[in-house]
Design brief:
The chain is of the alpha/beta class. The protein is built from five helices and seven strands. The protein is globular. The chain starts with 25 loop residues before the first helix and ends with a strand.
């Protein structure tokens, strides 16, 4: 797996071993990022970071601030290696890694008013995480005005579980075999 575009293009990322991390495919990540447009000076949050690929891709494409949130110590070790690689390649974004549960919200003060929030929790708990976060008033206030990009589990009918959430204007996009919920979080 590698960074697709920008300053750190073609930098190979370390991916934790095993099935606990299921990186977004290169094809899906490229199509997603190309559809999202310009990341220059954007403030990005990557929840359930895994390898950090989504946040680091944004940093390579010009984001000014990237906050990576990951609970697993092994995954954080891989993310730290990946941060070093993209910084060595010339990425100048302020990149921070927080080792904690993304549902805790104890990181909100580290990046107030993000422009975009990527979330790719483990598929078995994805809908539970989504419901927990979107029903949390504190999360919704912090994220107000941001664009939420949530990777949807690859299972029949999964998209329907993510519909009709108050405060979200959502649509779904499929890139390759990967589905994403794309939402504006209303102020």
């Amino acid at each position: 797996m590698q960074i697709i575009s920008g300053i750190a293009k073609r930098i190979r990322l370390t991916v934790p071993k095993g099935l606990a991390v299921r990186p977004t495919s290169v094809r899906a990540r490229k199509a997603l990022f190309d559809s999202l447009g310009d990341f220059t000076d954007a403030k990005i949050v990557d929840l359930f970071s895994g390898s950090g690929a989504l946040g680091l891709e944004a940093a390579s494409r010009g984001a000014s601030d990237v906050l990576l949130v990951e609970q697993s110590g092994a995954h954080c070790q891989a993310i730290n290696e990946n941060i070093e690689k993209v910084v060595k390649a010339g990425v100048t974004a302020n990149i921070r890694l927080v080792s904690q549960n993304a549902l805790s919200g104890n990181y909100y003060h580290l990046l107030p008013k993000p422009d975009a929030i990527f979330a790719d929790p483990p598929y078995p708990i994805s809908i539970e995480c989504f419901e927990t976060m979107t029903s949390n008033e504190r999360f919704m206030q912090w994220a107000a005005g941001a664009f939420l990009i949530w990777e949807i589990p690859d299972e029949p009918g999964a998209s329907g579980k993510f519909m009709n959430v108050p405060g979200l204007e959502s649509n779904f996009r499929k890139f390759g075999s990967t589905n994403f919920l794309l939402s504006n979080i209303n102020d």
